[in-house]
Amino acid sequence: MAGPHPDFIPPARPIIGEAEIDAAVRVLRSGRVVQGPEVAAFEEEFADLTGGSHCVAVNSGTSALQLTLLALGFGPGDEVIVPSFSFAATANAVRLVGAEPVFVDIERDSFCLDPEAVAAAVTPRTVAVMPVHLYGHPAAMDRIATIADQHGLAIVEDAAQAHGASLNGSPVGALGTAGCFSFYPTKNMHSLEGGMISTRDAELARTLRLLRNQGMEQRYANEIVGANMRMTDVAAAVGRVQLTQLAEWTEQRCANAKFLDSAITSMVTPPVADGARHVYHQYTVRTKGNRDAAQQRLTELGVGNAVYYPTPIHRLKPYLAENGEPGPWDLPETERAAAEVISLPVHPSLTQVELERIAEGANLAGGAR
Question: What is the per-residue pLDDT across 328-339, written as a single tens digit (0 to 9) for each?
Answer without folding.
Answer: 999 999 999 999
